[in-house]
Amino acid sequence: MKKITALKLQKRNKNRVNVYLDGEFAAGLSRIVAGWLQIGQEISEEKLADLLAKDEVEIALQRAVNFISLRPRSEKEVRQNLYKHKIDEETIQTVLEKLRRGGLVDDSGFAEMWVENRSKFRPRGRSLLRMELRQKGIQDPVIEDNLQDVDEGSLAYRAAQKQARKYAHLERQEFRKKLSGFLARRGFPYAIIYDIIPKIWEEFSSQQQT
Question: What sign results for the dihedral spanned by CA atoms 135, 141, 146, 148?
Answer without folding.
Answer: positive
